Amino acid sequence: MARADTCFHCALPVPANCDIRVEIGGKQRPVCCPGCKAVATLIRDAGLERYYDSRDRPDPGAVRPAEDAGEWQVFDREDMLAAFACRDGAAAEATIYVGGMYCAACSWLIDASLARLPGIRNAEINPVTHRLLVSWDASSMGLGRILATLADLGYKPQPLAPDSTERPERAEQRTALKRLLVASLGMMQAMMFAVALYSGEFQGIDADMERFLRLVSFLVTTPVVFYSARPFFAGAVRGLRARRPGMDVPVSVAIGSAYVASVYATYTNGPAVWYDSVTMFVFFLTVARYLEMRARHRSVDRSSALASLLPNTATRLDGDRRTQVPVAQLAAGDIVLIRAGESFPADGSIAAGRTSVDESMLTGESRPQEKSGGDSVVAGSVNLDGIVEMHVEMTGTDTTLGTIGRLSERARYARPAFVQLADRIASYVVVAILVLAAAVAVSWYLIDPDRAFVVTLSVLVVTCPCALALATPAAFAAAGSRLSDLHLLVTNGNAIEALSRATHIVFDKTGTLTRGMPEVVETVAHDPGFTEQECLGIAAALEVASTHPIARAFARHESGLTADALEIRVGSGVEGTIDGRRWKLGKAGFVPGTAPMPPHDATTQVFLGAGERVVAAFTIADTMREDATNTLKNLEKMGYSLSLVSGDSEVPVARTAATLGIGDARAGCTPDDKLARIDELQQQGEIVVMVGDGINDAPVLAGADVSIAPSHAASLAQSSADVLMLGDSLQPIVTLMQAARRTMRIVRQNLAWAIVYNVSAVPLAAAGFVPPWLAAIGMSTSSLVVVLNALRLSRIR
Amino acid sequence: MNILYLLIPLALLLLAGAVWAFFWAVGSGQFDDLDTPAVRVIMDDDERPPEDRKE
After folding, report:
1. What ipTM, to 2 d.p.?
2. pLDDT tens track for A249-301
3. Measured distance CA(A384)–CA(A353) in Å, rounded
4. Which of A316, A357, A717, A752 has the lowest CB atom count within 10 Å?
5. Residue A753: C-alpha distances to residues A479, A743, B36 (Å)
6. Beta strands A723-725 and A706-710, pairing class
7. Residue A175: CB partners within 8 Å, gap ≥ 6?
8. B-chain residues within 8 Å CB-CB of A44?
9. Shortest CB distance from A126 goes to which of B27, B33, B38?
């Protein structure tokens, strides 16, 4: 649960002078702002308080109240319904991407809140893919009401066009589940008949009954081979065609040859059938694939990730008429109106007006950029204070944002592939076993034809590579589930192997090592009539209406003063009246008595003035995360080399690097530069881990050997990352690196055990010292040892 | 032991039935979300009248 000084709803720190409380569960709970109070009250009044008991640790800042509810009314219009929903008479069905949800409690909250709306027929929410499929009676309410309900709860809803609704993942997941079930049922049945056949070997069996049991085994094995094992055959064919045979090839050979040999033996009444081995092998491999696929599907959906950075609608100007249109309908040449606080829907240039723009997510530049007539703006950046008209030049995938998306896609394919050692060994072992079994059968046939069958059987059973096939997936699954308890979501199965071999960790600065949020770091009162606290309170009151990031620095110093007649001076500051006095807050040159200064440092100077005098000066800077120094020290102790690459300018980067003791720091990097730097390190033989959160980090996250993104990261960055860190600290990286090393140690133990067992058991079995029943016990014990060893990983702290 | 010639095919029929039922369940989306239902059971005590939710 949240500490006393953090917000009960969103877990951000409660500002010093803020005393807003909400009664939940019979107790007064502190919250950090009126928005959080509104959301918490909404949840309480709807009788949904249990959300707070069942959610995972609150994710700081993830679920924040919506800023503008009016936005959603547009979606009540008929043409919007046509664009985003499928109609069937009065019933409508729409798919909505719900940003900001991470746990099952969120999905319950959404479900329960929607059920209270009139006319809702069905709402299905998938917490893994963040998609909500809702069907409702379109005559009783519009789509806007549903979106507004979600936004009121603090999520970021985004209606998806019907053509993008059917995710391939869902079909893939369903098919994989069916294949797994067929394999498991087939395996159980085949094993059962195999037991009958084995015992028949000892006690004697009717020739007819033996034929019958073999035929039945054939019937249950055939679907396993042709349905469950199809991906292996398809993969093998693909691999051979591309002249890059993977592990699917030996697997297919093993399955195929054992199956064909068994069918032949069934038909000709031959000495042995291997149906049980075939089904068991397919089953264990299918389980491993299924676990890996589920981890992969956890990663953030790319198409939605890109789109969620853009607004849903834009205000298009046709002459004097303003029309709200979906962003997808914008075309080059349109003129669009962008209000303060909105993000730009497309690439283009400013046609009229001036404003400052926050491009930090795209470039890493931590300070707002001034833009006026003719300056270019990029989609996804945020318009901070002025109202501007924009001339649209590029839309959709042609934008800078789209290019970054493509760049990260390409980098992902180009990343060094980690060959799955265990799988490869396992598949070769299978081929070796088949060859060996054939050799044993022939030899014993020559020595003692009566015992040939039993000995061959023992060899086959005792050498079943289950332990080998299970060694890696069992350890990865155990580590993955334990790490998700520790708020580290592993979305790529190979990430752990790569992490354990990592040598070099590269950090982004803005938003990763620093908070990415400006804070007042120094206050100097020039007027003895005011204390520093009072000055901050006045500044906070003046900044109330501003959406500028500087304003956020003051928000936590609010002291209950209210300012009237607020005026925002674009690019300079704000003015307002408090208790009859006219105050000015802004940059040097705007406040009387200060001389304009060129911006030159990581910090921003803001001045507060009344009349002709300067009352106070504030220094505002992006502050370091509290645990950054500690985390980096620990990582250095563990033997990793550390680097810093940032899109921010020289001075702040150098200063951060000096504070944290990072020797290798690069400033002013574009996404391409960052990627080039990673490539360079990889050329030198380093295994590179990248930690970053911005959109400009997405390509480099995808290109690094392993990548980690915090949960507040841009969704594009998240979709490129292998591991997501929930929560607001860097310390989990240390846990993650330790866990990865430990996991690989367990994997190596497992592999060693499996190999030692198989190597020592085979000669004994081949020599005829192991009866089949003992072989069966040995095989199961060996698999059990591997699984139990993997389970030790669930005690990672 | 001749009874096995009847019982095993019967068991296979049951197996086919089970596979069919599972395929139907997967197809109707019952396995799409494996996380929420576990929590839902804990949260949905009947504090509110059932007419809240109409199917």
Report:
1. 0.80
2. 767 877 787 788 789 889 988 777 778 878 887 887 787 778 767 666 665 55
3. 13
4. A752
5. 19, 15, 38
6. parallel
7. none
8. none
9. B33
Contacts of B38 in chain A (CB under 8 A): 104
Best CA proximity match to A560, nearest among A545, A532, A541: A541
Chain B residues in contact with A216 by the CB 8 A cut-off are 8, 12
Measuring CA to CA, how many Å separate A642 from each of A502, A514, A636, A693, A721?
11, 16, 7, 17, 19
A508 is catalytic: yes
Cα distance between residue A90 and residue A135, in whole Å: 10
The secondary structure of residue B50, as a DSSP letter, is G
The model's pTM is 0.64
Question: How is residue A763 written in tokens?
Answer: 């000669």
The token pair at A587 is: 């940059």
- Are B40 and A108 within 8 A, CB to CB? yes
Report the DSSP beta bridge partners of residue A610: A583, A613
Element (H, E) at A317: strand A313-318
> Helix-strand-coil percent breakdown of chain A, rounded to 5?
50, 20, 30
b/e map A561-577, b = 16+ CB within 10 Å:
bebeebebebbbbbbbe
What is the model's pLDDT at position A584? 83
| Residues, chain A | 797
Test B43 with A108 for CB contact under 8 angstroms.
Answer: yes
Catalytic residue among A59, A334, A423, A508: A508
Interface membership of B36 toward A (CB under 8 Å): yes
What is the rounded CA–CA span in Å between residue A200 and residue A211? Answer: 12
